[in-house]
Backbone:
């Protein structure tokens, strides 16, 4: 039986060979469904800033859309732009980080203007701090003080979920 | 008769699906979704910083003023009318012990929800988050930070 098939294949050499794509299609379909599902579940996507290793925690509240301040070991980033170096910030005695304060003030004024146009009173001062796990409290304290000073009083700390 | 006709049809027509367009679609869609896929699930810890109008409402009852101080080697749980409790934090069972202590405080004062975490300037962020986790899991979700 097998020999016969062989001979037939040898005779039909001129026919184009077809790829066996069915199993690959199976894989791709499963992968596609899996990716689509993970795409749908996470409505609000927050990507951690490069160079920032977030601490792990058992917290389970989901992030909301807000401005992001990232604090890495070397610099403080606002909206993915480095605005101050950690060494400079720690060298000053004042708790207020001037460069960050200016950026936050501008952002707050824009939000205020938007809120006025929409007929709302005060904008919600929401901000997300992505801090590297190794930063010291004095740095975090300065960043949070500056946020509060600029009117952002609803601070959320970004962490990686343990589960 | 019918069977014979079917067989003769099957011999001539190759019954292959045209799956190449579908493959093209997959090849484009899968890298796109892979790039946007989230493999690390981020969550947040919400904190309320003191705002200007918060001072307008005076506290209704006498507060416990519970605080957890983080030092190099220990956690110190303090509170009004509470004995100070020191927990060595470098041992493996330390987080469990802190949870037990905080849960005991919560049991004695079920209405209490506030806790202040007092850190030293050089305390690591990681260690602060650890204490936050312990207090939230013990039923004290209103966490404030303070420097020593």
Residues:
């Amino acid at each position: 039986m097998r020999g016969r098939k062989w001979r037939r294949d040898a005779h039909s050499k001129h026919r184009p060979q077809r790829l066996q794509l069915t199993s690959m299609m199976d894989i791709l379909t499963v992968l596609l469904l899996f990716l689509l599902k993970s795409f749908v579940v996470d409505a609000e996507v927050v990507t951690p800033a490069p160079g920032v290793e977030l601490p792990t925690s058992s917290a389970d509240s989901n992030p909301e859309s807000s401005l992001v301040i990232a604090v890495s070991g070397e610099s403080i980033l606002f909206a993915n732009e480095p605005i101050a170096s950690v060494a400079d910030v720690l060298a000053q005695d004042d708790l207020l980080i001037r460069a960050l304060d200016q950026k936050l003030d501008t952002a707050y004024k824009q939000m205020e203007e938007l809120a006025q146009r929409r007929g709302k009173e005060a904008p919600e001062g929401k901000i997300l701090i992505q801090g590297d796990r190794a930063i010291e409290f004095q740095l975090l304290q300065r960043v949070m003080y500056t946020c509060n000073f600029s009117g952002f009083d609803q601070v959320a700390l970004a962490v990686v979920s343990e589960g | 008769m019918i069977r014979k006709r079917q067989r003769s049809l099957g011999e001539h027509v190759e019954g292959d699906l045209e799956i190449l367009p579908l493959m093209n679609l997959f090849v484009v869609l899968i890298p796109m979704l892979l790039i946007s896929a989230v493999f690390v699930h981020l969550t947040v810890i919400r904190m309320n910083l003191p705002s200007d109008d918060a001072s307008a409402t005076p506290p209704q009852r006498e507060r416990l003023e519970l605080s957890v101080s983080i030092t190099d080697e220990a956690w110190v749980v303090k509170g009004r009318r509470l004995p100070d409790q020191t927990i060595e934090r470098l041992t493996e069972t330390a987080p469990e012990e802190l949870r037990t202590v905080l849960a005991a405080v919560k049991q004695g004062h079920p209405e209490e929800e506030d806790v202040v975490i007092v850190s030293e300037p050089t305390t690591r962020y990681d260690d602060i988050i650890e204490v936050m986790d312990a207090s939230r899991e013990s039923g004290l979700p209103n966490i404030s930070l303070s420097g020593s």
